Amino acid sequence: MPTNSLTDVEFVQSALDQVNWQDNIIVLALFVLGGVFSITSPYFLLAENLINILRQTAIVSILGVGMTFAIISAEIDISIGGITAISAMLAAMTLGAGYPWFVGVAVCLGVGLGFGLLNGLITARMGIPSFLVTLGMLGVTSGLALIVTNTQPVRVQATGVFTLFSGQIGPIPIIVVWAVVIVAVGHLILSRTRFGRHVYATGDDTQAARYTGIDTDRIKILTLMLSGLAAGIAGILLMARLSVARPTMGDGLMLPTIAAVILGGTSLFGGRGWIPGTVLGAILMSTIDNGLVLNGFGSSFQELIRGMVIIVAVAFRKQEGEGWISG
Amino acid sequence: MSINEVIQFDDISKSFGSVQALESVSFAVRENEVLALMGDNGAGKSTLMKILSGVLQPTEGSILFRGEPADFDSHIQARSAGIETVYQDLAVAPNRAVWENIFLGKEPIRQTRVGRVFKLIDEERMRRESRSVLDRLGMDLDPASKVKDLSGGQQQAVAVARAVQSDPSIIIMDEPTSALSVEAAQRILDLIEELRRSGMTIILVDHNIDEVFKIADRMTILASGRVMGVQPAEQLTEDRVVQMMMGATKSSSDSSQA
Questions:
Q1: Residues 6+ apart with CB under 8 A from B43
Q2: What is the value of pTM for the model shown?
Q3: Which ipTM did the prediction report?
């Protein structure tokens, strides 16, 4: 027998390794949950409800695109909810002061990018873990969102914003169209560009990446900026959908986003992951939320389930990494 | 004597605070040879190689690369000048495929208008050229395998393939076999032999004397930051090398012979 041929056990293991368990399990989970919810609630499979699930998925998917970049580069962004809120608040105030819609949009995106840059600079240049930096930034941005109007919501009356960011094209909510565009662009950047390749390498082994000439600090700053930008975009879309910016509008976004990214197969330890998986994770999270509501469970229960889903997903991922499947 | 000198270390000194890591180091590296840089831990081998590869700058002295001053500010500069380093701690991305690792940090861009604007990587070219580098080095590796699924020796081979891919004129190998089994180490030595045959110059940092005698054309021995001797391998014995590594200079041996 040639020395490089596989033993039977190795052969079976290598075949098992080819299967992307996480992605298959997530699709399976979607079908199982869909089946259960369609039995327990007559409304679940109505087109209106399915579109509602997509609408709920949209924001988490968009935030998930930024978060996938951050987590693959071995960082994390806890501050997205706060950034979403402060960017929407400042944009709504800009619009309220009479500036045209595109200035409001620019403010929203600029604020998102700016806080992302700040997160990135502190993380990369000062060597503080992004978990701590963005946790602090969550406090800063959430606090600012409350301070700027002394906790009051700001109504939005800018038609340009509504035309572009809310409403429907046929039966499809525009927010879903935006999500599809952002997911597609994010996926292309991550999988097809030199930058994307360097994001993976940075998270996989930062020292190795640096030795090969990759500016890993720059990569980390950029991924956190993308996460901030995604939060800014979420800010516009939520503001347009609700016609109002509230200081608390970003609450509860971080947990489902991180859950979606990890459920989608992105390693919390960096170096592995992909954006279509994040979208599947987001659909799963929305389906869980939606099904729970239809079955009479309140938002507290959703929070509980989200937390549990994250723990199970991370436990699964860790087991896989330590050889449960890949040997 | 018409032997081409590619690198000339000229009076290189390096101190870290009060610690003198290198003291007036001068010697040359010749075209297409395997030069072993020997010395005990702390002798200054790694410091010298870090200076050559642009990671550190000398306190005094200079390096000539093909007769031109070579003051590299970073290893990226050194690399673009044609000096590649294979690090002891591998420096590979474990979750990426072999072909991705071979091109890590220097991914080719698709030469279309869209490709250039968005810096889209030319994946097909990367796969194709990885295959040909691996073939050239006689490595039986699937370019699509993930690096973490390979053995230590194979991972080291990937690191070597990455260095070779850009066709450098000099490859510095920092203890390339220290973490490997005897068999895997032999394969890396064969690989070094193959690189020399293909015209490259190799500086091998090592303290495994057996190994060095198998492969080196010449040896430079450092002790406490000084050059103890630079000699062809066939003029040295293992005992003599050990003596020099412990600090006995060439001149003291010369005077004993006189």
A1: B222, B223, B224, B225, B245
A2: 0.83
A3: 0.76
